[in-house]
Specification:
By secondary structure, the chain is an alpha/beta fold. It folds into two domains: 3-57, no CATH class; 62-336, Alpha-Beta Barrel (TIM Barrel), CATH 3.20.20. It is 27% helix and 23% strand. It has helices at 103-106, 108-111, 115-120, 128-137, 154-166, 181-187, 203-210, 214-226, 245-259, 286-299, and strands at residues 3-5, 11-14, 18-20, 26-28, 36-37, 48-51, 54-57, 62-63, 65-70, 84-89, 124-125, 142-145, 170-175, 193-197, 230-237, 265-269, 304-307, 317-318, 325-330, 333-336. A hairpin with a 2-residue loop joins strand 6 (48-51) and strand 7 (54-57). The radius of gyration is 20 Å and the shape is globular. The protein starts with a strand and ends in an 18-residue tail after the last strand. The structure holds iron/sulfur cluster. The site of iron/sulfur cluster has 12 residues, from loops. Iron/sulfur cluster binds at residues 28, 30-31, 33-35, 43-45, 48, 94, 152.
Length: 354
Amino acid sequence: MKRSTCPKNISMKECYLYKKLSGDKIQCQTCAHQCVILSKQRGLCGIRVNIDGELYLLTYSRAIAENIDPIEKKPFFHFLPGTLSLSVAAMGCNFRCDNCQNWDISQTPKQMGSPAEALAKAGAALPPEKIVERAIENDCPSISYTYTEPTVFLEYALDTMKLAKEKGLKNCWVSNGFMTKETLEMVAPYLDAVNVDLKFFDDGLYQKHCGGRLQPVLDNLKTIKKLGVWLEITTLIIPTLSDSEKMFKQIAKFIKTELGPETPWHVSRFSSYLSWKLQNLPDTPTEKVEAAYQIGKEIGLKYVYSGNIASENSENTFCPKCGALNIKRNGYRVKRHDKNGRCFRCSEDLNLIL
Ligand code: SF4
């Protein structure tokens, strides 16, 4: 793969998945938007630019955020529970969710007038080998590609994931699930876990409030499962948008029948204060989150967790067979009672990736 230099001499990387169309026109094949991009233009995410008929990622080796987080914060409750994860993001996103809490890093490239401006603000230099080094130095057994959408910084994420694997680290994505099948198949050999936001069960809401579509997300969820990558699902319950019992049932049934009852479902409370464009909405009443939890359990999901509410057992892991409390969570404090991933009382498999 070629590297090119932008006018400000910051490195860019040629994208892995795109095809050339007529003239200098190209089509990006990284996410389900499959943008057709004219010369000197960028795709919808604002960070992939057509330079003379070749597509380049503007944010390669540029981290806009880097933190050491509990893995539970992603959230992952069945993947390396109780551990830390080196968490990184590059600027940009292929969605424009009204409820976004990280809009200051996900949406900014779209507001920048030129690729050079986007590049200049793309964050600190943090090459893949440095990310891996920092994970090891800080006793993080995994690297999370998170805060923004990892699909749109595929080349940066994938190169890091390959190095991480060589060093015995695990990789996890927190994603909107709107990638192409080609992207999924490319990352799957290096991807250990993914948490996908299943935001609505309604295509119109996906289009109106996120600039995305439902069907590619559903298809990708099934593919992730088939590829053998550990999967957890998150649904943010937003008043008037994603808070109906009908939608809770549709999502829970989809998870159970298409992904398997062992797939954890996180239902969490919306906070208007943190949202990009939904500050006119109230915070989600606790009862709505509890209703989603109940419906998930009634439909037969083994693990449902409710987030951002004050409830003693809402984030604990109980044995799906005998009901024993196996993992107690209090904020990000995690106390495990399981025996190597099995219930301490009846030995049932708790579907933990350890
Ligand atoms: S990653 Fe998606 S949004 Fe960005 S250029 Fe490619 S197809 Fe368009």
